[in-house]
User: Fold this.
Amino acid sequence: MENEFYYNAIIVQENVNYGDLKKINEKYNGDWKSAYEEYIQDNHIIKNPEKEWNKILELGVQLILLDSPKYPKLLKEIYNPPFGIYIMGEIQENEKIPISIVGTRKATNEGKNISKKFSRKLNENGFLIISGLAFGIDISAHESCVELNQKTIAVIASGVDNISPRSNYKVAKKILDNSGAIISEYPVGAKPFPNRFIERNRIISGLSKGILIIEAPKSSGALITARFATEQNRDIFVVPGSINNQNYIGSNNLIKNGAQLVTSPQDILDAYGIKNETAQAIKAESFSNEEKIILDVIKNNTGDASIDKIIMITKLEAQIVNQTISFLLIKDIIEENEYGYNIKTD
Assistant:
C-alpha cells in the first residue's frame, strides 16, 4: 500500500488537480513515492500525510490506482482515466452489464417515474445501474435499486465520505447496505466544487457499457456525459419527449444526432440481446399465497382488476389486498391503469 499512501499524500494537498497529477505520472511513471519526495522539496506541505491516510483506514475506504489489477477495465480504457479512485463499498466486475442512467436535477414526476421504471427493469434483467447520486433522475434510479435491495453504484464529485446534498445521505447508506458502492476520484473530505461535476461525468460513462438519458434540457450536465460517452465509444440511449417540454430539448437533439431512441426498457434489452425475464419471473418467483391469489384475479380480469373487484372476488381483507398490491408494484410484476391493475408486459 506504499504507492497508494504517497499518491494520497500528494492529492490531498491544496490546489493539486488532474493536470498536476498527469504531469507527475508522466515524469515518474506511477512511482508516487519518488514523486512525493520531490514534491515536498518544491511545495509547502499543508496536510499531514499520515493523518490523511488514517482517515481512509478508519472509514474502510479502498484506494485503487490506475496500474492496479483491481482497477475497473472499462474505466481504464477511456481518455484521461483517474490515476486513482476511492471506493466506499464493493465493486465486482463481470457480474452484470453496467449501464448509467442520468438526467436533469429538476426532473418532472413523469421523468422520475420513467427513471425508476427503467432502472428496476434493467436491474431485474442483469444490468448494474450507475448514476451520480444527484437530485432528480439520478436519485430516482438509485432509489429503485435499493427499494428492491439490489446493488447500484454512485459516482460523486466530492470525497466518498462527503455526500452532497446531505438529503441524499439515507440513499447513500442504503446503497452501501445493499453491497453497492460510492466512488470518487477525489480524496476523503473533498468538497464538491462545480468543475468536479464535469470531471465526474466522464467516470459515470467510463464505468458503463451504455448510458440512458432521461429529461436533459439544452444545458443539462447529462449532455456532457453523453459527449464523454461518444468519445468513449459507449452506447447512448435516450427517452424522447414533447417538443414543448424544456426538459426534453437536449434529449431530442441527441436523438436527431444519432442516439438510440428508447420508449421502454425492452428496447435496451433488445439492443444487448437479452430476453425480458418478467414472464419467467412470474412463473419462477416464490410468491406468498395472497400474491398468487391476487395475481390470478388480475390475469383473469385484464383491464378491469380494480381494488374493489379484487376484494370482492378474493374475500381478502382490504388492508391485505392493498399491502399485497403495493409489494407487487414494487416488484414491477403489475402496473396500474385507469381501471385498476394489469400484469406488466414490457
User: Anything to note?
Assistant: The longest strand covers residues 97-103. Residues 218 and 250 are 4 Å apart (CA to CA). The first helix runs from residue 2 to 11.
